[in-house]
Amino acid sequence: MPKDIITPEDEQLILAAIQEAEQNTSGEIRVHIENHCQGDVLDRATEVFAELHMHLTKLRNGVLFYIAIKDHQFAVLGDAGINAIVPDHFWEDITEEVISHFKQKNYATGLANGIKMAGQQLKAHFPYNKEGDKNELSDDISFGH
User: Per the database record, which ranges form the TPM domain (predicted)?
Assistant: First the structure.
């Protein structure tokens, strides 16, 4: 199980980063961690995106951080509303930041930094609207096998 690698302290760091990022945006961030990725990492991330119902946000502004720890696979995936407006290098910059920490087995720090980077862009393009904005998706980390 990925929970063997991600400690409760790691979970708290990741959760805090999600909550911090989402305080300033209507965007929604999820993290999914599993040990193995069957097939292409982007295809698997797209499957998980759908399984977590991330495409159902009102503004189509969900972001998924997908990690297959033992297979050393990572993808960050944004919904249509985000992809239409973020800079071209947006996902690559986040991926480089996260992977640089993963290489030292600092999974939680890498994820937290990437989540905060995503939050900055989401804040710019999908600012928090205290009138009726609600947390549409769970902040909890989802775990696979």
Answer: 4-120
